Amino acid sequence: MSDIALSPVTFDDHFAREFQEMAIPWQADEAPDPRLLVLNEDLAAELGFDPGFLRSPRGLRLLVGNAVPAQSTPVAQAYAGHQFGWYAPRLGDGRALLLGEIAHADGQLRDIHLKGSGRTPFARNGDGQAVVGPMLREYILSESMHALHIPTTRSLAVVATGRQVQREILLPGAVLTRVASSHLRVGSFQYARSTGDIGLLRRLADHAITRHHRSAAGEDGRYLALLQAVLSAQATLVAHWMLVGFVHGVMNTDNMTISGETIDYGPCAFMEGFDPVAVYSSIDETGRYAYRNQPLVAEWNLARLAETLLPLFHEDQEQAVALAVEALEGFRPKYSAAWSVGMNAKLGFRDGLDDGVTSPLVDELVALLQESRPDYTSFFRHLGKAARGQAEPARRMILDLEAFDAWLARWRALMPDADAMDRVNPIYIPRNHLVEEVLAAATGGNTGPLERLMEAVASPYEERPGLERYAAPAPESFGPYRTFCGT
To answer: Same structural domain for residues 168 and 59?
Structure first.
């Protein structure tokens, strides 16, 4: 259904028009009884939407794709991807649609994208539906990441469809309205390359440069510069994940964006007890995407991107490969630099301190954490108290007190800035037991716990009275944690 008066916000269908080889026009399934579960009013305003309109019956139909602005052409996007290391040449949006692009308050375009809107030609054996729990998980996790200043896709709304969806049991269906700088992925380039159409590949690369990495446009080797820009963005992004203890869970190449935003909050979680081999995805049986492996997997994914771009680097295959290898060799230094800067900030070190002084302290602390496995988020927050002379909360979390006391003495001698530490070490994250509590309540129709959790994580660095339970680790009875993608 088209309705030119549907919204004052102007949609464009640039991707649908310019990349017809990678976009299948499609319509969302009709939602029999759409009901708003949560609306991101601040994001709505940034996009030019009237929140009151989005809460209206017409607005809800827009949010589930049943009412489409006249300027919009909903499409299911094609992409390929390596999933757990295995190449799939045709994945695509099996249960999602790109409604179109609109202008954000910052002047840049944003994709408006639906997740759980019904089967598409890419659905394979899936039913194309989503259920309330996983869609709210993405809402909670993505908005928490945004509050932590980590590049991420965002969530505009979750709308219950009024349809029951068969999983292990019947569950209420829902659609997530996702907002992204774009949905270009490494898998998008893998698909374009697989067609053998170098013209398509070149157009896609030019589109990525225009949309995300305009500095590459002025370079002589613009496509090599594009790879280097994506490499830098991903090195910084994954360093951010590691610094806050985020475990993505499904780092397939179709889940790595060209923009450098985090995408696809399916089987993911924030690490609680420090554990380098932490895995929270129910389908990651080998630990391929464990916490400590994330930088290595990112580098591997970027090598797959480089492979797709080889024809654009140089006409001679050997020279193209040599250029790609040289670029990829820059990933580890960039990642290490971003992680070191972030860890120095977490420890309150001032700019200008010699790495020869700080690096040993960082390495020793990581070894102590690995031995003791304290709650990762709480430990760094308590370390801020130690910088103020209150060492006991942090000391209680470490097994080898003699080694930790020696470490504390050397750390304090560098005069760490406690206030600066509090600005980068969150006190509130979407803790796993709280997320599950919220999802269970919302699936049963109660969104009160969701609202209270979102209030806490929206200001993750500011300690507030009455929110103590949102800063506390999970009780021992919570047990091992696994998450599911919801398909």
So the answer is: yes
Q: Which of 129, 154, 180 is the last residue of a domain?
A: 180
- Indicate if 175 and 311 belong to the same structural domain: no
Which long-range contacts does 441-450 make (Cβ < 8 Å, 24+ apart)? 442/37, 442/132, 442/133, 442/136, 443/131, 443/132, 443/133, 443/171, 443/172, 447/37, 447/38, 450/37, 450/38, 450/136, 450/140
For residue 29, indicate whether it is catalytic: no
Mean pLDDT of 244-261: 97
Extract the tokens encoding 41: 């009013």
What residues contact residue 196 under an 8 Å CB cut-off, 6+ apart?
none
Element (H, E) at 129: none
Q: Distance between CA atoms of 372 and 370, rounded to whole angstroms? A: 6
- What letter would DSSP give residue 449? H
How does pLDDT run across 315-338, given as a tens digit for each residue? 999 999 999 999 999 999 999 999
Mean pLDDT (the chain) is 95
Q: 3-class secondary structure for 392-435?
A: HHHHCCCCCHHHHHHHHHHHHCCCCCHHHHHHHCCCCCCCHHHH
Q: How far is CA 84 from each of CA 59, 122, 134, 200, 429, rounded to the nearest angstrom?
A: 38, 19, 21, 27, 27
Which position has the token pair 């898998």? 187
43: nearest Cα among 150, 143, 174, 133: 143
Residue 149 Rama label (left phi>0; alpha psi -120 to 50; beta) = left
For residue 248, the enclosing domain spans 185-427+471-487
Identify whether residues 347 and 367 lie together within a single domain: yes
Cut 0.85: pTM above it: yes
Residue 61, beta-bridge partner list: none
* Residues 248, 242: Cα–Cα separation, whole Å: 10
Strand ordering across the sheet containing 96-103:
23-25, 75-77, 96-103, 109-115, 170-180, 154-166, 35-39
Please state whether beta strands 170-180 and 35-39 pair in parallel, antiparallel, or not at all (unpaired). Answer: unpaired
Ramachandran quadrant class, 128 (left: phi over 0; alpha: psi -120 to 50; beta: rest): left
Q: Which two structure tokens, joined as six digits, stand for 301?
A: 């994914």
Number of CB atoms found within 10 A of residue 78's CB: 22
Domain count, the chain: 2
* Beta partners for residue 175, in sequence order: 159
Which residue out of 254, 264, 284, 422 is catalytically annotated?
Answer: 254
Which region holds residue 175: left if phi is over 0, alpha if psi is between -120 and 50, else beta?
Answer: beta
Q: What is the C-alpha separation between 212 and 178, in angstroms, rounded?
A: 18
Residues 275 and 399 in one domain: yes
Q: What is the pLDDT of residue 125?
A: 86
